[in-house]
Design goal:
The chain has one domain (7-399): MFS general substrate transporter like domains (Growth Hormone, Chain: A). 81% of the residues lie in helices and 0% in strands. It has 18 helices and no strands. The protein has helices at residues 7-42, 46-49, 51-74, 76-100, 103-130, 137-159, 173-191, 200-206, 211-215, 218-246, 255-279, 286-305, 308-322, 325-333, 341-350, 354-369, 371-374, 376-399. It starts with 6 loop residues before the first helix and ends with a helix.
Length: 400
């Protein structure tokens, strides 16, 4: 990894990245609100409602490889522009699906929306990691992931009424706001599409696209397993938390109140990411990752095995533990050679399909045994992340 582009271009890239990470969090959190909307307003089963998460995250598996090739050919800035344009079109389709109450069209819109986010996941995460000093990559990515968390906090606060309102205009404002921001960002990236064209770091980072070679990296494969498990756990908890807080055995909160309380879950992630960006400058990333994963497993186990206020507080507190996991796993798994970054990032992005698989498993268990027992699945997922942290610690020791 190299020193990166000129300071003016680097600052502009960071400002643009703030917008991308924030809107990505906002949209992803809004999608999670569709699950309690379907269960509370329309009486859907958990397994049926969680199809929205499956549609949303399945894109990472289906489209990551062709998107990786597009990024290799067109570069990071143009690829991010394409992704934002696709997200804008998908949001329009989602608004139509909501207004017409067409569930298949809703799933198609979510798949398309996720396709656009896949562009951003590979392009934006990777350019932030590889442009600049290697030892600051975890710091930069955790800082921007904090902006992502700000978006996830705003979504349940802004969209809580979306849970209790019926079909019609009241369902639209959160997604209309997202559409406006997406269009503005698309225009901004179009105007700055040549920003990194003359930066040596950008040319080196794109490199060649070789998935078979990337698969030979054992640390990357471990990282894929950790990303799969982490995203599956985070998405499952984020999607089911509103319903968990509404249960008579927990807080018995009203739907809109429970949805607003979910913002505390995402607020913990934001605080942790900003704090983590500071810690990463002083401590090897694998250490805080291991601690966070073990605490997340313990807190989720408390929520799964009990209820009431302790279980609710424990499940909300998992957000703080989640905070550093994705960016830290991503940076630890990414190869040190910048020319291999795009291929590796594509595989890591494909692993995000855990957000489609794990929630469906949780939904099946929730329908049969209840929400509490279904949370033991995320417990196992967090232990997988802890295992990756231990592996990276040993790997670093061998390289020292």
């Amino acid at each position: 990894m190299t020193a990166g582009p000129a300071p003016i271009a680097a600052r502009r890239l960071f400002r643009l990245s703030v917008g991308v990470f924030a809107i990505g969090g906002f949209v992803t959190s809004l999608v999670s609100l569709l699950v309690p909307r379907l269960t509370a307003l329309y009486g859907s089963s958990y397994s049926h409602a969680l199809l929205v998460q499956m549609a949303f995250y399945l894109s990472y598996l289906l489209f990551a490889v062709p998107i990786g090739r597009i990024i290799t050919r067109h570069g990071y800035m143009r690829s991010a522009m394409i992704g934002l344009a696709i997200m804008s079109a998908a949001t329009v389709l989602l608004l139509i699906a909501n207004a017409m109450r067409l569930f298949p069209l809703l799933l198609l819109a979510l798949l398309l929306l996720s396709c656009g986010i896949t562009f951003l996941q590979i392009a934006s995460n990777t350019v932030v990691a590889v442009v600049g000093q290697a030892d600051g990559a975890a710091f930069r990515l955790n800082l921007l992931q904090g902006c992502n968390s700000a978006g996830t906090i705003a979504a349940p606060l802004f969209g809580a009424a979306f849970l209790t309102e019926g079909i019609g205009a009241e369902g639209g404002p959160p997604f209309l706001f997202a559409l406006l921001i997406l269009v503005l960002l698309t225009v901004s990236y179009a105007r700055n599409r040549r920003l990194l064209d003359t930066a040596p770091a950008a040319e080196v980072a794109i490199g060649r696209f070789d998935l078979l070679s990337a698969f030979r990296d054992r640390k990357l494969v471990w990282g894929m397993a950790a990303i799969f498990a982490y995203v599956g756990a985070e998405v499952s908890i984020g999607a089911l938390l509103t319903n968990y807080l509404m249960q008579p055995g927990t807080l018995h909160a009203r739907a809109a109140v429970a949805a607003r309380m979910v913002s505390l879950y995402w607020a913990g992630a934001m605080v942790g990411r900003f704090a983590g960006s500071i810690v990463m400058r002083r401590v090897a990333p694998s250490t805080p990752l291991l601690i966070a994963a073990l605490f997340a497993a313990g807190l989720t186990a408390i929520a799964a095995g009990g209820g009431g206020l302790p279980g609710s507080v424990a499940l909300i507190a998992v957000g703080l533990c989640n905070s550093i996991m994705y960016p830290t796993v991503y940076v630890l798994a990414l190869p040190a050679q910048a020319e291999r970054a795009t291929s590796a990032a594509t595989l890591l992005c494909m692993a995000v399909v855990g957000g489609a698989v794990i929630p469906m498993l949780c939904g099946e268990i929730a329908d049969r045994a209840g929400l509490g027992p279904s949370l033991f699945v995320p417990v196992v997922c967090y232990l997988v992340v802890a295992a990756f942290a231990v592996y990276c610690s040993g790997w670093n020791s061998e390289r020292a």
